Amino acid sequence: MNLVIQSLEPIADSHLKPLAALARSQQTKRADPAGQVVRLLGVDPLQRPDIDAYCGAHRLDYAFIDPALRLSDFGLVAMDMDSTLITIECIDEIADFCGLKAEVAAITEASMRGEINDFNESLTRRVALLKGLDASALERVYEERLRLSSGAETMLAGAKAAGLKTLLVSGGFTFFTEKLKARLGLDFTRANTLEIVDGKLTGNVTGEIVNADVKARTLRETCAQLGIDPRRSIAMGDGSNDLKMMAEAGLSVAFRAKPVVREAAGLALNFVGLDGVLRLF
Question: What CATH number does residue 60 fall under?
Fold first, then answer.
């Protein structure tokens, strides 16, 4: 295996020997002009615990990667939206417009950590608190608060250039996924629909709730539509409701994720942006 080390800052030479020794690497080389990526060749994957401890202490991201693997070997990149493709949790920001952000955010956080097992119940409880809010709050959240995660556009451009299709699948809302689809040129989206009557939120979600099972099914169905095996997909997420989708994929990426997701994923990007995915290959 190869071991790819990444950082937001240039990686100091002083890290190279300790990393090589810990990974039992046969060769170490810098992989980018800015000095933010180091590739160690012929490493021992059983050294992961030592690498994890060292990299965590020095704010470095790492990934064990098959040296024969290419980005173009994949056909789809599937992404969660809230706190993955974008920096916010949309429902928390919507709730801020009716003075309930803290209450809603607490439920969101517990759900993403895996402490609330029933995502449907969690979402239903949160959406119910939004009843009566003017629907114009959604547009304000999009315009005033929604920001793409670092490296998102670079990652998407690189994936598209390598021939991958893009899927945004979210336990959030279609209001935001459809705007992002148009803005970023995404191929597929799936999310929940907020019911709006007379310009106000009713506190209900219409249709099937996009929970962990639906996310995984959407990935499988999209792969089937593309004529590829789900193992030829990359799935990225941050919360427990992304785990089943990530388990279907050939490469699972935990992005600024909760501990339960970092532990289950093939690799974690804790410090660098989403474009760190491109530098793995």
Answer: 3.30.70.260
Scanning the structure block, which residue is given the tokens 């056909």?
Answer: 75
DSSP 216-256: HHHHHHHHHHHT--GGGEEEEESSGGGHHHHHHSSEEEEES
Q: Name residues of the chain where pLDDT drops below 70.
A: none
Q: For residue 208, what pLDDT is reported? A: 96
Which of 15, 56, 54 shows the shortest CA–CA distance to 36?
A: 15
Does residue 49 belong to any structural domain of this protein? yes
Q: What is the pLDDT of residues 181-220, one digit of tens each?
A: 999 999 999 999 999 999 999 999 999 999 999 999 999 9
Long-range contacts of 21-30 (CB under 8 A, 24+ apart): 22/47, 22/50, 22/51, 22/54, 23/47, 23/51
* Residues that are catalytic: 80, 82
Specify the number of domains making up the chain: 1
Q: Residue 111 has what pLDDT? A: 82
Is 79 strand, coil or helix?
strand
